Structure formats: structure tokens, C-alpha cells
Amino acid sequence: MKSKDWLNRQKRDFYVKKAKKQGYLSRAAYKLIEIDNKFQIIKKSKKILEFGAAPGGWSQVVIEINPKIEITAIDLLELKINHPQITFFKDDYLKFNYSKKENYYDLILSDIAPNTTGHQSTDHLRLSNMLFEIIELIDKILISGGTFVTKIWKGSEEKELINKLKKKFKIVSYFKPDSSRKDSAEIFIVAINFIK
Ligand SMILES: C[S@@+](CC[C@H](N)C(=O)[O-])C[C@H]1O[C@@H](n2cnc3c(N)ncnc32)[C@H](O)[C@@H]1O
After folding, report:
1. Ligand 1 mean position to 114 CA, how many Å?
2. Catalytic residue from among 21, 68, 151, 164
3. Of 2, 11, 165, 196, which residue is the least packed, with the fewest Cβ within 10 Å?
4. What's the pLDDT tens digit per position in 165-176?
5. 54 Cβ inside 6 Å of ligand 1
6. How far is CA 129 from CA 61, 136, 173, in A?
């Protein structure tokens, strides 16, 4: 194993162990903690939608930071956290009935990810296609001034995704959390102040 691979493995294991010890359902929880430390988006929010919420690490972080918040969580897989503030829909995000939630959320989080093939550009295209659909949905359900945070996998569609977001939000920033492997194509986009 190359020393860079070894270091990355060590780091991954470090966060997996840390999550277990601290009772988080996923190591991804640390990514949201880092995002919130930098951008301070959770405390000021009242209604959140999470695309791809299972097993529930991000939901745990959200509730910890803002116990009064209302969360709508969507995933194909079961959410492993039960909380009175969380309404969970076990379904494809495209099947959710958004018509009752028009102009409703002030924060939308997406950690959604398709099943990976291991072929980086195929995986990138699959996630990007989901995100293009999610960006369309956001138009309806996010309030003016709202915030959108999403994971992307870097690649050919990245520029178009960012350009779309730049037309809809006043500030669009890239963020690579320390808890995200340096060698992964993953990066987070924080889009602030939605223009309706
Ligand atoms: C990286 S995981 C999310 C981890 C989560 N943020 C956490 O901290 O526990 C990505 C999730 O996206 C979900 N997903 C993939 N395709 C989906 C779809 N079409 N509709 C809803 N959820 C989907 C997967 O089931 C998976 O649970």
C-alpha cells in the first residue's frame, strides 16, 4: 500500500472510530459539523429538508445544534434515528409530494449519493443528474434568502452545476471538510441567500 493510501485509510478509520465512540450513525456527521462551524447555517434555520438522510448522522447533528428545528428527511433506506422533530419518508426523492411544501424550507441539505460503480466519471454523472433534478425542485420549496448545501463529486458537470447555482444564490462557496478524504472527488457546495 502506498503511504498516501495508508494515510487516507488511517484517517477514514479515525473518523469511523470517532463516530462509534460519540454515538453518531455515520462518519459523514463530522462533515456537516465542519460545514456548520464555518458557515453557521443550522442554528438560524427553522425548517430543513434532507435529501439522502440515511442512516441519520446529519439528522443527529442538526438536532444537536438546533433541537427545535423541523426536519423532513428522505431516503430509499431506513433512517436509524427516531425523533419527534423528524418526519421521515422512505422513498425516492423524486416521488415525494412537494406540492404541500412550496416556499417552505429555509435550509436544504443534500448528502445524496447513487450506488457507485467505481468508475469515477460514471458515478460523477449519476450524482450530477440527481443534483440537476434537486436544483429544479429547490426552486419550488426553498424560501427566498434560504440556504442549500450539497455534496458533489468533481468532474465534467461540475461547472454547469455551479453556474446554475450561481444564478440562483447570492453566494456560492466550495468547502472540503478535513473529515472528507483528500483523495476523494467529494466536495461540498454551500449556496447562501436564495434569490426567488
Ligand atoms: C452518503 S449517504 C447519506 C449519509 C447521511 N448524510 C448520514 O449522515 O447518515 C447517501 C444516501 O443517499 C440515498 N439515496 C440514493 N439515491 C436516492 C434516491 N433516489 N432517493 C432518496 N435517497 C437516495 C442512499 O440511500 C444513501 O442513504
Report:
1. 7
2. 151
3. 2
4. 999 999 999 999
5. yes
6. 27, 11, 20
Residue at 182: amino acid letter: K
Enumerate domains of the chain plus CATH numbers: 3-194 (3.40.50.150)
What is the spatial distance between Cα 33 and Cα 60, in angstroms, rounded to a whole number? 10
- Would you say the CB of residue 146 lies under 6 angstroms from ligand 1? no
Q: What is the pTM of this model?
A: 0.95
Cell of 138: 429547490
Whether 183 has a pLDDT exceeding 90, the answer reads no
Which residues make Cβ contacts (< 8 Å) with residue 22, sequence separation at least 6? none
Residue 12 Cα distances to 7, 20, 26, 30, 126, angstroms:
9, 12, 12, 11, 24
Q: Tell me the three cell numbers of residue 153.
A: 463529486
The alpha carbon of 51 and the centre of ligand 1 are apart by a number of angstroms equal to 7
Among the listed residues 55, 65, 117, the one whose alpha carbon sits nearest the alpha carbon of residue 88: 55
